[in-house]
Amino acid sequence: MTLLDSILLQISQKNTTFNELLTRLIPNYSSTESARAALSRVIKNLMSFEYIKKTEDFYEITEKGRKFVESKLQNKMLSNINSINDLLQRSQPAKSLQYLDDVVKNLQIFLERSKEDPTLLKIGKTSATFYISDLEQLKEIVEKRLSNFQNALERQINSLKELNFEDQFVVNLDESTFELIREQCEINSVSELVIDCDKTDINSGMLFEMHSEFTKKPDNVFTLKLSDIEILKKLLLSKLDIIMQTKFKVYIKEMVVYLRVGRLYFTGPYSQIANIRESYARKTQIGKGV
Q1: Is residue 215 helix, strand or coil?
Q2: Which residues pair with 250 in a beta bridge?
Q3: Residue 155 lies inside a defined structural domain of this protein
Q4: What distance in Å separates the CA atoms of residue 17 and residue 19, rounded to the nearest whole number?
């Protein structure tokens, strides 16, 4: 839609002032001055074509302008209907869903415009070469394909689970999540946490350097005895800004636990992550008194 068409359509819907039109236009331009200049040119052309007139501070559409708008909308409706006709015809022979998105999009445009103007609905009815039954057939194809995709994806997911493929579980950092870390360390016979801080994150490293329980290693890595995990919990949960700013990862055998923006990301083999999910669900239910 050209700027002239857009401005004329706005005026046809409601008598409006220059400033009201300018306010809607400004976001599309680099400056208020360029938007004002473009709008001034369009208003000048619309006035010269006798599509609009000015009454005091308000612009209103003329009968000539209204007929122009209706003609434009009707042409767009015909184009819209013809697109649906063409897309459905190309879809039917091979029962293809290649054009499904375009069919749905054009149907939505047709329905919205038809509600606004009964004349456009009449044009659509007389111009369409498709029927509701054609769309119902398309819907049946969609449902069948979707069912096939769901079944195939379910089989593939189950196969990946059997292969113990990598999975992830994400939770907000709170007191219960430290119990998950402790539990996984005990299951995997890990007595010492290896905390790997991002080399570019100076603040996280300094946070641990300030506490003697953390032993600094090369490359911004720290170790902490599992028995001292309460210290890590108190340190991170003491202030919200510490939780949100601290970034590190903890290695527990094949599993890695990341802390990012106040959330813990457990990543590792499916069997271990499934165990963590179940454990977290149990702890959550107990916490709620279920």
Answers
A1: strand
A2: 195, 257
A3: no
A4: 5
| Residue 152 belongs to a domain | no
Classify residue 226 by its DSSP letter. Answer: G
Which tens digit of pLDDT belongs to each residue from 152-192?
999 999 999 999 999 999 998 888 888 899 999 999 899 99
Residue at which a domain ends, from 143, 176, 196: 143
Order the strands of the 52-55 sheet from edge to edge: 16-17, 58-61, 52-55
Residue 1 pLDDT > 60, yes or no? no
Whether residues 180 and 261 fall in one domain: yes
The predicted model scores a pTM of 0.59
Clarify whether residues 55 and 75 are in a common domain: no
- Per the structure, the complete domain to which residue 22 belongs is given by 3-61
8 Å CB contact between 204 and 246: yes
- Domain end marker among 61, 77, 104: 61
What's the pLDDT at 253?
Answer: 87
| 234-254 residue pLDDT tens | 888 876 676 677 788 999 988
Which token pair is 195? Answer: 């905390």
Our count of domains for the chain comes to 3
